[in-house]
Design brief:
The protein is mostly helical and about 80 residues long. Helices cover about 45% and strands about 0% of the residues. Helix 1 crosses helix 3. The longest helix has 16 residues. It is elongated and about 50 Å long.
C-alpha cells in the first residue's frame, strides 16, 4: 500500500513516514496546497502541515482573496 493511502488514524512512522514526507514535499513545492494534500491523503490538515515542516519545507504565505472595504493600518 503506498504511503499516501495509509489507513486514516493509523500511526505513520519510519520509512513509510519518510516516503510520505518526501512525496508531500515534492507536491507542495510544485504548487499543491496543504488542503489539496489533505484531500489526497485523507490525513488531517495538522498532520500534513507538521510533516511538511519536519521535511524542511518553507511554507508559502496564505493566499486567496483579500477582504475588501476594510482599511488596513500601516505600521509606523
Amino acid at each position: 500500500m503506498p504511503a499516501h493511502t495509509a489507513i486514516k488514524g493509523q500511526r505513520i512512522t519510519g520509512e513509510v513516514r519518510a516516503q510520505m514526507a518526501a512525496d508531500l514535499k515534492k507536491k507542495y513545492e510544485k504548487g499543491a496546497s496543504i488542503r489539496a494534500l489533505v484531500g489526497a491523503t485523507g490525513r488531517s490538515y495538522g498532520f500534513v502541515h507538521r510533516i511538511l515542516g519536519e521535511s524542511g519545507v518553507v511554507m508559502r504565505e496564505r493566499g486567496g482573496a483579500q477582504r475588501a472595504g476594510k482599511a488596513r493600518a500601516i505600521p509606523a
